[in-house]
Amino acid sequence: MPTLKDIRVRIKGVKSTQQVTKAMKMVAAAKLRRAQERAIMARPYAAKLKDMLGSLSSKVDTSLNPLLSGRTEVNKVLVILITSDRGLCGAFNTNIIKLAYKTIHEDFADIHSKGGASLICAGSRGFDFFRKRDYNIVKGYPAVFQNLDFSTAKEIAETASGMYLRGEVDRVIVAYNEFKSVLAPNLKAEVLLPIAPETSAKESGSDYIYEPSPSAIIDVLVPKHLNTQIWRMMLESNAAEQAARMSAMDSATENAKDLLRTLNISYNRARQAAITTELSEIVAGADALSS
Predict the structure, then answer these.
(1) CATH code given to domain 25-198+209-248
(2) Cα–chain-centroid distance for residue 72?
């Protein structure tokens, strides 16, 4: 049974931890607001680019652009995994790593068994996980979210498109956390290449005059589309990470409060037991002296 000193030391430690988790929750809430604004601002531009690409691709031969034409047979796959650089964010990294693992080992099990699966890891957690297990990591960005910049997204997009054009991969998939709300992240594994833009009904019924030509415009839009999509996914993942950390720190603070209540009850019981024991010894000693 723990002594009064042991319980006091533990209460002090739990109070210190509670102060840390409360401060981390407030910091994550401040970062979440900024990250959420950036993610929401990037969505309309990325969606409009995709709509324009869908409208143009219906008017040209997509086989002229290799990034728009799919391969008849998929023998090699590239998975771009976006995780966080730090922990203390609940199951944020575990869930997205499980999704990437499932994509490689279940959806492309035959390709992985032949050594045709490769990875690009943005974020320290995913990079460390797959590096220790000897996966084929083409490139790693272990500290990308400490200084999140568009140039990193552009570099990832150029690496993936270059591998696709050279025939080193036949499909590129991005696994990331899409920010939906604080309590409900949305795990996604989207096909980045080949590009299969959806044509909306509004765009398909419109008739425009293009200058210089639809094919020339597509050649310019495709790299912009890839860069923007990777950048949007990284912003979404960053916002989802801050939301997960804020939720995890809030739960940790509440758990510390419950633990303090339990420890205080145990401390009071132990103190009462010690007082009762001392009184009993005093009474027994007084009886012994009087007899």
Answers:
(1) 3.40.1380.10
(2) 32
